[in-house]
Design a protein that fits this description.
Number of helices: 11
Largest sheet: 5 strands, antiparallel
Number of domains: 2
Distance between the termini: 35 Å
Strand content: 5-15%
Number of strands: 11
Shape: elongated
Low-confidence stretches: none
Order of helices and strands: HHHHHHHHHHEEEEEEEEEEEH
């Protein structure tokens, strides 16, 4: 979405991002195969491609899973968040190519159809070391397929945000399957501990960065200004704490609220964007609309509704001023409810 209230399609920023992304992936695959050939010229070229595509997809998945938590820690990562879907689709095709070459290399020379051989060639399901790790990779690839196929906003609108979000949360299940796929596969075919150690380091990083950002968010919520469902006004701060056309985020009754100051007025809305739960309070007002810093979705501060033809709505809150002190009502209005903003007195503004 743009400040002119229309969908943003392909633009110069996205083209540059995709060129950098695809160029980096191509360079990694080239260097992987070249250096591996230098180290051991006896390695088969097809086996190298299997490892190159698989490792590129696995590394890219770690980057994708890191972008969300890092964006919570610093706005500098917002551009990556804005283009994360392109990275996810690229990762899926790398994984698909890895699976395609591996299927041909390991299952194309028998009497059984290769697609069937993947599932029946190893039946040691009760053994950890000899477990058919390929099945774990297939399971992860199926999840990534549905995520890649529904990555467009068309599916976000038609599936509804909660369903779409639940579907794409499957990335964590896919990641768990891939950790098992790579770890068990390494134990069966690679005696060198480097790969298992690298997977362990990646797992610790992903779990650690998610835990740390969750802990940070919990600390913010612990400063809840009104831990009750009673209907009253609670003081949230002073006008001088908020920059013009920016917001202060507070927690009221367990819900994060963005309090915006703009054009001599103060309005309060839910901090959660209906698109992908982005933090509206970290954005700013552009062309009279609150603009989400993640993907540019916009809302009119007085109504909590997106400008036509868009239909997203967020809850609104009553606001009142006593001098330069800001008070917000603890009970929100239903999404899209018009609320008269609090007007800043001239002497207070001066």
């Amino acid at each position: 979405m743009s400040v002119n209230y229309k969908s943003v399609q392909w633009n110069r920023q996205k083209i540059i991002y995709d060129v950098i992304l695809l160029g980096t992936v191509a360079l990694y695959i080239f260097l992987f195969q070249h250096l591996a050939n230098q180290i051991d010229p006896s390695i088969d070229a097809r086996g190298l491609r299997i490892r190159a595509y698989g490792s590129a997809a696995f590394i890219l998945l770690h980057v994708i899973l890191s972008i969300g938590p890092l964006s919570r820690l610093s706005p500098k990562f917002y551009p990556l968040l804005f283009n994360r879907r392109h990275m996810g689709v690229t990762m899926f095709f790398l994984g698909l190519n890895h699976a395609r070459v591996a299927r041909i290399w390991y299952h194309d020379f028998g009497n059984v159809d290769p697609s069937i051989s993947v599932f029946v060639s190893n039946l040691h399901y009760l053994s950890f070391i000899r477990f058919p790790f390929e099945i774990l990779g297939v399971g992860a690839l199926v999840i990534f397929f549905f995520m890649a196929a529904t990555s467009h906003d068309f599916w976000l609108v038609n599936l509804t945000a909660p369903v779409w979000k639940a579907l794409h949360m499957g990335v964590y299940a896919a990641y768990a399957l891939l950790v098992g796929h790579v770890t068990i596969g390494a134990l069966q075919s690679n005696r060198h501990p480097f790969l298992a150690i690298a997977v362990g380091v990646g797992l610790v990083w992903i779990v650690g960065i998610h835990w740390f950002t969750s802990w940070r968010e919990m600390q913010k919520d612990n400063n809840d200004l009104a831990k009750t469902n009673e209907d009253y006004f609670v003081e949230v701060g002073r006008l001088g704490e908020i920059q013009e056309k920016r917001a202060k985020v507070v927690t009221i009754g367990g819900e994060r609220v963005a309090v915006f100051k703009y054009d001599g007025k103060v309005s309060a809305v839910s901090n959660v964007c209906q698109h992908q739960n982005g933090p509206l309070g970290e954005g700013k007002i552009v062309y009279d609309c609150i603009t989400c810093p993640w993907h540019g979705f916009q809302y009119v501060p007085e109504t909590g509704a997106s400008p036509p033809p868009f239909t997203e709505k967020i809850p609104t809150f009553d606001v009142r001023l006593e001098g330069d002190r800001i008070f917000v009502r603890t009970i929100p209005h239903p999404p899209g409810t018009p609320v008269t903003p609090a007007l800043i007195a001239m002497e207070v503004a001066e």
